[in-house]
Amino acid sequence: MWNNLYSGFINGLGMGSIYALIAIGYTMVYGIARMINFAHGEFITIGAFVSYGTAALIGANPITMVICIIASMLVCAIVSVITEKLAYYPLRKRNTKKITALITAIGVSYIIYSIFNIKFQEQKGSPKFLNLTDFQLTIITIIITIVTVLLITLFINKTKFGKAMRATSENPSAAKLMGINNDAMISLTFAIGAALAGIGAVVYCLRIPYFKFSVGTEAIGLIPFVAAVVGGIGSLPGAVIGGFIIGIVQQLSMAFPVTSTWTPAIVYGLLILILMIKPTGILGKMVGEKV
Question: Which end of the chain is more exposed for a tag (fewer CB within 10 A), N or C?
Answer without folding.
Answer: C
